[in-house]
Structure prediction request, 169 residues.
Amino acid sequence: MNTRLLMTLRVTVAAPQNIGAVPHGARRTAPLSGGSFEGPRLRGAVLPGGSADWLLLRVDGVLELDLRATLRTDDGALVSMRSFGLRHGPPEVIAAVARGEAVDPATYYFRTTPRFETAHPAYAFLNRLVAVASGDRRPEGPIYTIHVGQHTLEQRLCFANIPIAVRRR
Prediction:
Protein backbone atom coordinates (compact mmCIF):
# COMPACT_ATOMS: atom_id res chain seq x y z
CA MET A 1 0.00 0.00 0.00
CA ASN A 2 1.26 3.45 -0.84
CA THR A 3 0.80 6.24 1.67
CA ARG A 4 0.67 9.98 1.52
CA LEU A 5 1.47 12.49 4.25
CA LEU A 6 -1.63 13.88 5.91
CA MET A 7 0.14 16.00 8.53
CA THR A 8 2.88 16.30 11.07
CA LEU A 9 1.40 16.84 14.53
CA ARG A 10 3.50 18.28 17.37
CA VAL A 11 1.95 18.28 20.82
CA THR A 12 3.19 19.83 24.03
CA VAL A 13 2.42 17.90 27.17
CA ALA A 14 1.77 19.29 30.66
CA ALA A 15 2.75 17.47 33.85
CA PRO A 16 1.17 14.00 33.90
CA GLN A 17 -1.40 13.01 36.49
CA ASN A 18 -0.52 9.61 37.96
CA ILE A 19 -3.66 7.64 38.70
CA GLY A 20 -1.70 4.61 39.84
CA ALA A 21 -2.03 0.85 39.70
CA VAL A 22 -5.20 -0.29 37.95
CA PRO A 23 -6.22 -3.84 37.00
CA HIS A 24 -4.25 -3.89 33.71
CA GLY A 25 -1.16 -1.84 34.65
CA ALA A 26 -0.30 1.70 35.75
CA ARG A 27 -2.57 4.50 34.50
CA ARG A 28 -1.73 8.18 34.06
CA THR A 29 -3.11 11.04 32.02
CA ALA A 30 -1.02 13.64 30.26
CA PRO A 31 -2.94 16.85 29.49
CA LEU A 32 -1.98 18.52 26.23
CA SER A 33 -1.07 22.17 26.71
CA GLY A 34 -1.00 22.96 23.00
CA GLY A 35 0.80 22.17 19.80
CA SER A 36 0.57 22.53 16.06
CA PHE A 37 -0.06 20.50 12.92
CA GLU A 38 0.78 21.01 9.28
CA GLY A 39 0.23 19.05 6.10
CA PRO A 40 -0.45 19.54 2.41
CA ARG A 41 -4.18 20.27 2.94
CA LEU A 42 -4.45 21.55 6.51
CA ARG A 43 -2.58 23.32 9.27
CA GLY A 44 -3.40 24.79 12.63
CA ALA A 45 -3.18 24.41 16.40
CA VAL A 46 -3.89 21.81 19.07
CA LEU A 47 -6.32 23.30 21.58
CA PRO A 48 -5.49 22.91 25.28
CA GLY A 49 -8.20 22.02 27.76
CA GLY A 50 -9.97 18.75 27.11
CA SER A 51 -7.11 17.40 25.00
CA ALA A 52 -5.06 14.70 26.72
CA ASP A 53 -3.32 11.37 26.35
CA TRP A 54 -4.62 8.57 28.56
CA LEU A 55 -1.68 6.22 29.11
CA LEU A 56 -1.59 2.67 30.42
CA LEU A 57 1.77 1.07 31.15
CA ARG A 58 1.01 -2.62 30.90
CA VAL A 59 2.76 -5.28 32.96
CA ASP A 60 4.59 -6.45 29.82
CA GLY A 61 6.24 -3.02 29.46
CA VAL A 62 4.11 -1.85 26.52
CA LEU A 63 2.66 1.65 26.81
CA GLU A 64 -0.89 1.96 25.45
CA LEU A 65 -1.72 5.48 24.27
CA ASP A 66 -5.26 6.81 23.94
CA LEU A 67 -4.89 10.35 22.61
CA ARG A 68 -7.86 12.67 22.24
CA ALA A 69 -7.36 16.17 20.93
CA THR A 70 -9.28 19.05 19.44
CA LEU A 71 -7.55 20.64 16.47
CA ARG A 72 -8.36 24.09 15.09
CA THR A 73 -7.33 24.74 11.50
CA ASP A 74 -5.91 28.10 10.44
CA ASP A 75 -9.29 28.97 8.90
CA GLY A 76 -11.18 28.19 12.13
CA ALA A 77 -12.53 24.66 11.55
CA LEU A 78 -12.63 22.37 14.58
CA VAL A 79 -11.55 18.75 14.18
CA SER A 80 -11.82 16.04 16.81
CA MET A 81 -8.95 13.55 16.73
CA ARG A 82 -8.78 10.19 18.52
CA SER A 83 -5.77 7.97 18.26
CA PHE A 84 -4.92 4.62 19.83
CA GLY A 85 -1.38 3.34 19.77
CA LEU A 86 1.47 1.41 21.31
CA ARG A 87 5.00 2.35 22.34
CA HIS A 88 7.67 -0.14 23.41
CA GLY A 89 11.30 -1.00 22.91
CA PRO A 90 14.47 -2.14 24.63
CA PRO A 91 14.42 -1.24 28.34
CA GLU A 92 17.47 1.05 28.08
CA VAL A 93 15.89 2.99 25.19
CA ILE A 94 12.54 3.39 26.95
CA ALA A 95 14.38 4.49 30.12
CA ALA A 96 16.22 7.17 28.10
CA VAL A 97 12.88 8.36 26.64
CA ALA A 98 11.44 8.52 30.18
CA ARG A 99 14.41 10.64 31.30
CA GLY A 100 13.67 13.11 28.50
CA GLU A 101 16.75 12.30 26.46
CA ALA A 102 16.81 12.62 22.68
CA VAL A 103 16.38 9.08 21.30
CA ASP A 104 16.43 7.96 17.68
CA PRO A 105 12.81 6.97 16.94
CA ALA A 106 14.09 4.03 14.86
CA THR A 107 15.27 2.37 18.10
CA TYR A 108 11.77 1.83 19.51
CA TYR A 109 8.24 1.10 18.29
CA PHE A 110 5.76 3.99 18.44
CA ARG A 111 2.70 3.69 16.18
CA THR A 112 -0.84 5.03 16.43
CA THR A 113 -4.05 4.94 14.38
CA PRO A 114 -5.62 8.40 14.24
CA ARG A 115 -9.31 8.95 13.39
CA PHE A 116 -10.94 12.31 12.78
CA GLU A 117 -14.39 13.93 13.00
CA THR A 118 -15.42 17.37 11.80
CA ALA A 119 -18.56 19.19 10.68
CA HIS A 120 -16.66 21.59 8.43
CA PRO A 121 -17.28 20.82 4.74
CA ALA A 122 -13.74 21.76 3.63
CA TYR A 123 -12.34 19.02 5.88
CA ALA A 124 -15.09 16.40 5.51
CA PHE A 125 -12.56 14.09 3.82
CA LEU A 126 -11.09 13.55 7.31
CA ASN A 127 -14.31 11.81 8.38
CA ARG A 128 -13.59 9.03 5.89
CA LEU A 129 -9.98 8.26 6.78
CA VAL A 130 -8.16 5.83 8.98
CA ALA A 131 -4.59 7.00 9.29
CA VAL A 132 -1.39 5.49 10.62
CA ALA A 133 1.18 7.53 12.50
CA SER A 134 4.73 6.99 13.62
CA GLY A 135 5.78 8.77 16.77
CA ASP A 136 8.93 10.41 18.04
CA ARG A 137 8.85 11.19 21.78
CA ARG A 138 10.61 14.45 22.64
CA PRO A 139 10.97 16.04 26.10
CA GLU A 140 8.27 18.67 25.34
CA GLY A 141 5.93 16.12 23.80
CA PRO A 142 5.57 13.70 20.92
CA ILE A 143 5.76 14.41 17.22
CA TYR A 144 3.44 12.30 15.08
CA THR A 145 3.98 11.85 11.35
CA ILE A 146 0.51 10.91 10.11
CA HIS A 147 -0.03 9.13 6.80
CA VAL A 148 -3.11 7.89 4.95
CA GLY A 149 -3.28 4.97 2.59
CA GLN A 150 -3.46 5.60 -1.12
CA HIS A 151 -4.09 2.16 -2.53
CA THR A 152 -7.36 1.92 -4.43
CA LEU A 153 -9.35 4.28 -6.58
CA GLU A 154 -11.94 4.57 -3.82
CA GLN A 155 -9.32 5.67 -1.28
CA ARG A 156 -7.91 8.25 -3.70
CA LEU A 157 -11.41 9.60 -4.33
CA CYS A 158 -12.05 9.73 -0.57
CA PHE A 159 -8.89 11.74 0.00
CA ALA A 160 -9.74 14.01 -2.93
CA ASN A 161 -13.04 14.89 -1.17
CA ILE A 162 -15.27 13.66 -4.02
CA PRO A 163 -18.81 12.85 -2.82
CA ILE A 164 -19.83 9.20 -2.57
CA ALA A 165 -22.66 9.64 -5.12
CA VAL A 166 -20.12 10.67 -7.77
CA ARG A 167 -17.97 7.59 -7.05
CA ARG A 168 -20.89 5.23 -7.77
CA ARG A 169 -21.65 6.51 -11.30
User: Anything to note?
Assistant: The chain is about 10% helix and 60% strand. The chain has one domain: 2-167.
